[in-house]
Amino acid sequence: MKSYQTKAGKIPGTNYSELIKAARLIFHTIEKRSKRRPYIRSAYFDKEKIFFDYFWVHLEGKSYRDRTRRLKYFSCALELIENSRAAPISKVSQERKDEILHRFTGISREGDVFLVQIKEKILNGQKYLLSLFPPE
After folding, report:
1. For residue range 55-78, what is the model confidence (pLDDT) as tens digits?
2. What does the buried/exposed string (b/e) look like for 86-125 if buried means 16 or more CB atoms within 10 Å of the residue's CB?
3. Largest Cα–Cα separation, the chain
4. Helix/strand/coil (H/E/C) assignment for every residue in 16-67
5. Which of 129, 133, 132 is closest to 52 using CA atoms?
6. Closest CA to 116 of 47, 18, 82, 30
7. Is 52 helix (H, G, I), strand (E, B) or coil?
């Protein structure tokens, strides 16, 4: 599987409060582009919209330490979604058979590997950013 090399670096900071401010600032610029639900367009999915409905909810369910670890890669993940044409690992969700999970691999400017998971609903074809994280 190919990894996408991002030009964007990780968000600097070690404290969750620093990282969430920077990530929300980046997200706010995305929110301003649309009057409705915020989205970004994916190069791999032929410029289809990727929505953020589940991402912030999923992130809130994690511990502060894990949130901090994940949020560092937010800007890298957005660049990967917008520009990567590398094929992800795709599989049908174990919990729900009407969803496909796509897992993309990226490398930040600093050389750190991270993963981005996108959920696709088979019934309507909508795609959602579910999670981003560095491998254990």
Report:
1. 999 999 999 999 999 999 999 999
2. bebeeeeeeeeeebbbbebbbebeeebebbbbbbbeeeee
3. 40
4. HHHHHHHHHHHHHHHHHCCCCCCEEEECCCCCEEEECCCHHHHHHCCCHHHH
5. 129
6. 82
7. coil
Beta strands per DSSP E along the chain: 4-5, 39-42, 48-51, 89-92, 99-107, 113-121, 127-133
* pTM of the predicted structure, to 2 decimals: 0.91
Q: Pick the closest to residue 132 from 73, 46, 87 (CA basis).
A: 73
Q: Kindly report, residue by residue over 96-133, the tens digit of the pLDDT.
A: 889 999 999 999 999 999 999 999 999 999 999 999 99
pLDDT at 96: 85
One-letter amino acid identity for 30? I
CA 13 to chain centre: 19
β-sheet bridge partners, residue 48 = 42
